[in-house]
Amino acid sequence: MMHSLVEFALVFSAAAEIPQKLFGLFPFYFASFSDFLQMASNGVSYAFYVWLAYALTYLLLIGLIIWSYFNHRQFKQQLEAKLAREQRVKQYQEQQT
């Protein structure tokens, strides 16, 4: 039991020294920038999963923005067509009376 507590304390005392300041503002928990890009921690790289998640998120957000833009444009065109039709119907009805 005592042996595991000593190891626990060593890990956390070493981990407290790891964060460096990134541009003097944010704690940086990686040993180097390449480790950050690889998302490497204790020899295990999570880069594929992390960057894939970021890429999919941003692609979906961009897709949503584009879809919303075209959907808005289509709605405006349909509304203009409906208003023009109503105007033509109103003019036709006024001509009939």
From TrEMBL:
Pfam families: CcmD. It is found in: Cell inner membrane. GO terms for biological process: cytochrome c biosynthetic process; cytochrome complex assembly; heme transport. GO terms for cellular component: plasma membrane. Its main location: membrane. The keyword Chaperone does not apply. The chain crosses the membrane at residues 48-70. Required for the export of heme to the periplasm for the biogenesis of c-type cytochromes. Belongs to the CcmD/CycX/HelD family. PANTHER family: HEME EXPORTER PROTEIN D. This is Heme exporter protein D. It comes from Alishewanella aestuarii B11. The lineage of its organism: Bacteria, Pseudomonadati, Pseudomonadota, Gammaproteobacteria, Alteromonadales.
